[in-house]
Amino acid sequence: MSEFQIVKFRAVDRPLTDKQMQFMDRQSSRAEFTKWEFEVEYHHSSFRGDVDGMLRNGYDVYFTYSNYDCREIRMRLPNGMPFPKQVWSKYIGIEGLKWTSDKNGNAGILSVSPRLEDAYDPVWEFDDYLEATVQLREMLIAGDLRALYVLWLCCAMDSNEDMAELMEPPIPHGLAAFPSQAKDLLPFFTVDPLLVDAAATGIPAYQVQATQEDAVSSWLASLADSKQIEIIQRLLSQDPIELKAELLSEIRQSQQAVVWPFEPPTRTIAELMEICRGVRKKEEDKLERLAVAKAKREADKAEKKRQARLAEMKCAPEEWLTKATKLVEARGTDNYREAASILADLSEAVGGEEGTKIARKHAAHLAKKNPNLKMLKSALRKQQLLD
């Protein structure tokens, strides 16, 4: 297998400026990029651009995958970690999860890069993983501690530490309601998504009180009339998509982070994995029951349809004999099987010796008329219409 690497960046809060675009142009001679996205693929080489520099100069999220066990995401948090340091420092201590503060201000970059020594299976849903990363970043900026916990899980599963001794960090409330799209990132780091459900076992629920609509309403109420007029004028004269991204970023930065409740850690990773195995077994049993129920519904539907066809056949057997003949004339293995199925059903529809006689007589006629069609004869014999 040849070496392969894909690199993606995404601007979330606002589009890049012309000056920032010039900086991006110097990072790769092969990349395709816009004010919102940057993407490049490599074969037999790798990206050598300034990842952190690109995140500090316009893009908000970085994603890379290679088939030689390199899987990493980075995200820039413009207001820093929205949790008390005594809380978030308990997560950052795990191998592969790193926080790098800017030299000035509160902003910084959170990187997630587990060892993944056994990541043999390739992945291709790059855009889905990138979207999940974007949502996790949004959750972090909003002060959702669940996002940091899940990123910790992604690194803990492949750390060098003893799973029987490695304790989980503080467990955020509301894990059972963790967004499914954000959970989609776990398979990228070879982590079972049900591990989040396992971690939610025994953890209280939590309902965030403030919604984005509440944040927008609060922000609008705080604006002076002149500022509102300015926004309307810009909306009519500028790119509305760029303006929306800028305003949403401004709204987000104006909100106070949620103080997310959590439980003190009591479980090791080994215990979490054991709980996950139980959750996985229940999920597999559930899926099996659903599959059996679906198969029964489909079988009942097919049988109902077949009985309706048998009723039609009994009323007009000659029409169905003609259909069987036309199918054979059209040639093709599937057509031969369908023709044989029609004759078998016709035998049942008419019933008794008469039905058997009609079906076998026509089967013999078709076989005699088409002596070189071995697949036809095989299909008829499987329906016990030919000796």
Q: Keywords, please?
A:
alpha+beta, 3 domains, 9 strands, 387 residues, two-stranded antiparallel sheet, 15 helices, single chain, 53% helix, 7-stranded antiparallel beta sheet
Which SSEs are present, and which pair or pack?
Blueprint: E1 5-10, H1 18-25, E2 32-33, E3 37-42, H2 51-56, E4 61-66, E5 70-77, H3 85-92, E6 97-101, E7 108-112, H4 126-141, H5 145-156, E8 171-172, H6 180-183, H7 194-199, H8 212-222, H9 225-237, H10 240-254, E9 262-263, H11 269-315, H12 317-330, H13 333-350, H14 352-369, H15 374-382
Antiparallel strand pairs: 1-3, 1-4, 2-3, 4-5, 5-7, 6-7, 8-9
Description:
The chain is α+β, with helices and mostly antiparallel strands and 387 residues long. It has three domains: 5-211 and 256-276, no CATH class; 212-238 and 248-254, no CATH class; 316-382, no CATH class. The protein contains 15 helices and nine strands. A seven-stranded antiparallel beta sheet has the order 2-3-1-4-5-7-6. It has a two-stranded antiparallel ribbon with strand order 8-9.
Number of domains: 3
**Please, how many helices?**
15
Work out the helicity level.
40-55%
Terminal CA distance reads 53 Å
| DSSP strand tally | 9
Give the neighbour order of strands across the main sheet. 2-3-1-4-5-7-6
- How would you classify the helix and strand content by structural class? alpha+beta
- Contiguous runs where pLDDT drops below 50 for at least 5 residues: none
Q: SSE order, as H and E?
A: EHEEHEEHEEHHEHHHHHEHHHHH
**What is the C-alpha radius of gyration, as a whole number of Å?**
32 Å
Can you tell me the overall shape? elongated
Residue-averaged pLDDT, rounded? 90
Task: Tell me the β content.
Answer: 5-15%
Assembly type of the shown chains?
Answer: single chain
